[in-house]
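Components:
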Amino acid sequence: MDIPYTVEVRRDTGLTNGKIGIWLFLASEVMLFGALFASYILIRTGAPTWPRGDTMLNVPLATVNTIVLISSSVTMVMAWASLMRNRFGTFRIYMGLTILCGLGFLVIKYFEYSAHFHEGAIPSTNNFLAIYFTLTGLHGLHVLGGMAVNAYFWGPGAKLWKTNPTWFTNRVEHAGLFWHFVDLVWIFLFPTLYLL
Amino acid sequence: MSDHTAAPMAGDHAVDIDKHVRIYISVFVALMVLTIVTVTVSRFHLPVPIAVTVALLVAIIKGSLVACYFMHLISEKKLIYAVLGLTAAFFVVLLVVPVITVHDGFWIH
Amino acid sequence: MSEPTRPAAVAAPKPHAAHEVHHEELGFWRKYVFSTDHKVIGIQYAVTGLLFLLFGFSLMMLMRWNLAYPGVAVPWLGAILGDSRMPGGTMLPEFYNELGAMHGTIMVFLGVVPLAVGGFGNFVLPLQIGAPDMAFPKINMLSYWCLFLGGITMLASFVIPAGGAAQSGWTSYVPLSDIAGGGQTWWLVGMIFLITSSLLGALNFITTTIQLRAKGLTFMRFPFFVWAQFVTAFLLLLAFPPLEAAGVMQLMDRVAGTSFFLPSGLVVSGQALTNAGGGNPLLWQHLFWFLAHPEVYVLILPAMGIVAEIIANNTRKPLWGYRSMVYSLVFLGFMSFIVWAHHMFMTGMGTAMAAFFQTTTMIISIPSVVILTSLIISLWGGSIRFNTPMLFALAFLPMFGIGGLTGLPLGLNITDIPLHDTYYVIAHFHYVVAPGTIFGLMAGIYYWYPKATGRRMNELLGKIHFAGSLVCMNIVFMPMFIVGLAGVSRRLADGGASYDFAQPVLHWNVWSSWGAWTLGLFQLPFIFNFFWSIWNGEKVTENPWEATTIEWSAPSPPPHGNFLGVPEAYRGPYEYSVPGAPKDFWPQYEV
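Structure:
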């Protein structure tokens, strides 16, 4: 059966079900990362000493990663805008770029992690590294998840454009909201861990 | 089945999107600039309280740009604002209350 | 900037009646196992919840042997459970701890919540708001299977890892849980499945309630049950993620050797630990209770919702103070996020924050009292029908009253000092959850069973179930206040037998144990009734209780798509005994 307001908005709320659903999900994610940030604050303020980010981590590499992720946010929103302009081909290009940027981010993270492990800097070494690996690890999993969703809409999911372009556009928008959120978390993670 | 090449809305729809795209590009530039700012400032190794304040401020500006323009929060519906407002309140509680409670109390490391 | 218009949609499908829907017939697996129909999923959740309630209760019945007769071999079971747990049939304290930790975990996360929220919420909510299903049926199905996987993980923890199941309490306090045996890791993984299930369910409930309510069904025309589920969903959505984060950190401590929760200089069994240290056990407690306090409102709110429906229906009167009840519910939900550290008064908290948490805790008791009082006043002048659902609903009121009032000394830090971690606490929370919530859930089962199956449950068996349960619950839990006031700690495998000061009150343990075993016996008529009535219960049509809410306009049981027409709400939810009306009830959905 068809569920109402999946594609068209409900008049009194002005929203589709999916739009509300994704924002509710993001609200829960705010609390998830919030708890980890709260843990960081509690552990750091309780520690007698705490190393400065740039003494433990690779700031230039992470800065590149920040630029990569922000760029991917732009390509993501451009992918959605292309659909709004009825340009499916352009959507494909921008979405592809978004996925590639995500891949780039993870590849750089892989090099970062490898370098740490090589020097014996592992999560159990000290609490700085523990919270660093946990926060960036969970964030990395979210990047991976976002990439999987984006790849679905770039590939097999794109069939929906032919049968229901509005619904497809909305779903890409919702995937975009998740992707932007992942970028948003990094915008706070990067200075917290690397610069302070 | 409907024709998947359903024509876009009349002219002003395309113009609407063009305005949005211009904003996206401006936000992108702003985010790049702010990234460079925050990394540069960190190299001065300011005292921790000041460093934290500056870094947080820049991050909040960057985050707001992403939220307002990429996530279209600036033109969202009241219901979404209400949910996010509630979330923000509890987020602040979570970030602030445990650390205050621990430091108000006795805990020997 | 304004919202741009979107590409042309395909013609928006209008809500249509169930009988117009044409589907290919789904096979057995898609129809009954991997179904996306909220009613099937609701029944899956409910049956799963009931089975886990029975299992969790059985764990406690076993524990109660050692509490009544410490060190005495358990009849029959000792041999089956083997020497590693019960050498010579006597319970090892480590095994007692496993039973205790898993009893709490299973009852809360696998029993009550799946039944109250997953079961009743899923089955009743869409019907009560006149919706064809949940907003996200596939996510609904996914949320059930996450629960299922979480349940399997928890059960597996009893048999698979060396060291047995989780043994550090349902609260998994660190540093003990950090260094405990293998089952604790399974507990953490299981919790991640369960939390995911709840988060997915919560966003489904909220979206469905806002978007799929029928025409004319404004928020202040919602049945109280809908409001209760709506607020509960917000609690789950926003309070669970911090526990998920804490679970990940505890997993890191256990598996990756981090020291999030391990302070420096910890010595275990004479050996200093070699971890990096610098962690804080209080961090776990803050994150755990940030969830676990709202969680207790997750446990009670659906039951309050059920009781409200049944009271209105069986007094043939509108609920007294509906508006204040709704405002109280919302206020309660909000306050529940800022009281959690009243579980932590004994952790060395300073006076400023203790004052803060005492204040918020005292304030939060107000909305609970408003709701309970309104329900009691709702009885006044009613034409009360004493059927089984109503008996359970009526008993809920004083039982919840006892539970709630006995919480007050726990919420003030000075009076908490002698009571913290004693049997007084156990008595308090069990009164709220056992003859409180569970009675509400039982009421709901008897009440909505006809809607789900098309048949009534047997009234005589129901009344036996009720009377026996009410008496036994009080025999089990009332003495625990006395035992707790005498100073006996909770989580002692021998119930305090090794302490001199406890000797005068130990006989109460025997009362509680026999009460528990008898309570178990009185569930048998219910279990029998539940299954027997599916085939032999008196058949009913749509509205056997002559109720006013929208679910009673659907066939019993409702078909796929729920309603024969498209429901609309024309008035409030409890228009009973309207002066001048032809019947003593004027349904919300009738023109």
